[in-house]
Amino acid sequence: MRHALLGLEYLPAWSHFNGVKLFNASIDARIIGEDGSDKGGGLVANAEHAPGQPFLAVPLDLVLSKERVVQCAKSDAHLKELLEAAPSLSQAPRTAVLLFLIYQMTLSSPDCQGHGLWLANPLADYVQMLPHHILLPTFYTTEEMELLVGTSLADALDQKIVSLEREFDSLKASTAEITWCQKLWWSDTGCLSFEDWKLADAMYRSRALELPRDAGVGMVPVVDMANHASDDRYNARFEVAEDSGSVLLVARDDRTVQHGDEITIMYGCGGACEMVFSYGFLEEHASSAREVFLSLAIPSDDPLRMAKTRFAQEAPGVRIYVDGSNQLCWESTFVWWACVNEEDGLGFRVQQTLDGEMELKALWKDNELDAGALRSILSDDPLRDLYSLRAVVMVQERVEQQGMKLAVSEDDFNNRSLTSERIRPQVYQTIGRLRTLEIELLARAYETLEAEKAAFLESSAVREYLAKGQQLDEPAGNAPEDVS
Coiled-coil ranges per the record (predicted)? Predict the structure, then answer.
């Protein structure tokens, strides 16, 4: 659909009339970064702010959250009808806000004039002031997506697109019989498209804040104007006032913000992939990918493969990350299911519950096993070093596979023409930096895992296990292959 837009020059007046208080701070419609790039709008301090001193306060009723959407629906029959028709979407905090966003976009769209649905709401104007061209990966062209081959973002983006398509299909199926939805969205002249749902998701994903004091997650007008800075550079934080529930943006406890300084927050502490995925950019000073998440799969020849996957109910992957002391670490619950087998003591059975349903049960050495307890049970087993070695080998093989995929696709990436209208220079540069940071992290992870593997191979338990295998005339071969 076509979208009605209001420029950021309207935001100061909107803030004033809706109770947003600015304390010696102002909204700037154009901020220039250190590298000369246009960062769009932002916030600027108009006087010195001592640590903890507030820049602005936003009333709780302006926070766009699931709770606020429900409140708006009490006075808006059409919004209420939408929420009730799509419970699978309206019950979740994120998709409840997405429903509100597309509803407001529809009400203000030039394609939907004369529908008679309009109801005054300060958040309606706020939605019109949000940027409608957001450079997130969900809006990459096909050629730009091809540049992601070998990065952890490639799989994450594929899964995200599938998830968004499933949500949009659910919305259409749930609202097809609502008169105004049929007329404005789904008829031959209807205006709602999958691109609109992606836009609502991008608005939420790039602006939603996880508020402190159990205040939940929501979009906070004006606070969401603050641009990102790295963990050693940002100068402001947000909090919730105990008396009023208002969201406050205040100077960091260890910072004094000078007159004329840009007011910045840290969007998140995830890795480079998460920054590009949720915000569409990488920090100017990023020197590490910080973390990657790689998928893992149980070997197809494992006879317990289906039972393991169904019972574990864990994300089938491994998170590789750099901790606060700059140590390379990895964590995965799923890998422990992949590295133990029936001969080790793992088993499954199907039993009938009291209500007649069939339930899958896991056993470890004939004792019933809870899904989340396998790792701790293995750590107490006499052969724990053997299981750890198997896990390390599996993770290392996955790291090597991902690194090779990145390396092999590097020539293709470098040969892509920046003159193509389907590849934007900013996207090309962002993906190039992501590729460099991830391949450096994968190389470091491989070396760390190699050292862990060597240490486990020196374990007496592993040595005894291998020796017994040789005595039984089992294939000797390479030691890591034997135990994995």
Answer: none
